[in-house]
Amino acid sequence: METLIKASLVLNIAVLVPVCGSLLSGAGWTGDAYGPPSPARGILLSIYLAILLVSAGLLFRPVPAFVAALLIVQIVYKITTPVTVGTLANPVVLSNLAIAAFHMVTVRAIAMKAGL
Questions:
Q1: Is 1 in a helix, a strand, or coil?
Q2: Residues 74, 51: contact at Cβ < 8 Å?
Q3: In 3D, which of 16, 8, 15, 105 has the Cα closest to residue 66?
Q4: Which of 23, 70, 86, 96 is 20 to 30 A (C-alpha) from 51?
Q5: Dist CA 59 CA 46 (whole Å)
Q6: How far apart are CA 12 and CA 56, in angstroms?
Q7: Are 74 and 103 in contact (CB under 8 A)?
Q8: Taking the complete model, does pTM exceed 0.70, yes or no?
């Protein structure tokens, strides 16, 4: 379980550092993936930064219940992304689904360890 927790948190950090950096710098690919700069994109960046910071903090003090809460919220928003975006063709949607699948394995391990 501890290995999966660390892997999920590192996955969050590994994905979000370049994504947040690219959104902050206005990298060209972000327009295709996230649309043009807008208040909505700024709100999404804020959410991504929150997930990044919480993931980094939990990497140093991985409380399983806190990790599970973070990952469950991510799983829900990532699984609903194809519906809210309206397509599976967007690369962000596809990566969200892959990450959600990985996080589901971690949450299941946490739940099993807790006897749930």
A1: coil
A2: yes
A3: 8
A4: 86
A5: 20
A6: 9
A7: yes
A8: yes
SS (H, E, C) 13-82: HHHHHHHHHHHHHCCHHHHHHHCCCCHHHHHHHHHHHHHHHHHHHHHHCCCHHHHHHHHHHHHHHHHHHH
Token pair recorded at residue 61: 């003090």
Q: How far apart are CA 42 and CA 99, in angstroms?
A: 22
Ordered DSSP codes for 69-116: HHHHHHHHHHHHHHHHHT-S-SHHHHHHHHHHHHHHHHHHHHHHHTT-
Q: Tell me: the pLDDT tens digits for 17-31?
A: 999 999 999 999 999
Q: How confident is the model at residue 47 (pLDDT cuts 50, 70, 90)?
A: very high
pLDDT tens digits, one per residue of 50-70? 999 999 999 999 999 999 999
In the block, tokens 């994109």 appear at 41
Q: What's the token pair of residue 86? A: 């309206």
Residue 41 carries which side chain, given as an amino acid letter?
A: R
Identity at 102, one-letter amino acid code: F
Closest by CA to 35, choosing from 85, 106, 101, is 85
